[in-house]
Design a protein that fits this description.
Length: about 100
């Protein structure tokens, strides 16, 4: 019942996060890959899915009133509970206090 009687205070203390994948396409990278493939055609046969596309995991942290922080995950990083705890401690907590 405490939550319902102090609804505004409860919402003000709530933080949510949304994780999403951002995709981009780099035509120059695709051209470089194509040039490299022509130089090494045997390797190309087993790796034909390189398209010059880049993919990054991105987190957005929200309070009840605003975006608190946005955070891009470095490539080749495992996002697990330890990683999230570090981001909360090192990046989000200082912004809130």
């Amino acid at each position: 019942m405490h939550i319902f009687s102090n609804g505004e205070a409860f919402l003000a203390s709530t933080l949510t996060v949304d994780g999403l994948w951002l995709h981009s396409h780099d035509p120059e990278l695709k051209c470089q890959i194509a040039e490299w493939y022509s130089a090494v055609s045997a390797w190309r046969k087993s790796h034909t899915n390189s398209s010059g596309a880049l993919k990054v995991m991105y987190f957005v942290f929200f309070s009840s009133e605003e975006v608190v922080l946005h955070h891009a995950v470095q490539p080749h990083t495992s996002v697990n509970d330890t990683y999230c705890a570090v981001v909360l401690h090192d990046d989000v907590w200082p912004v809130l206090h």
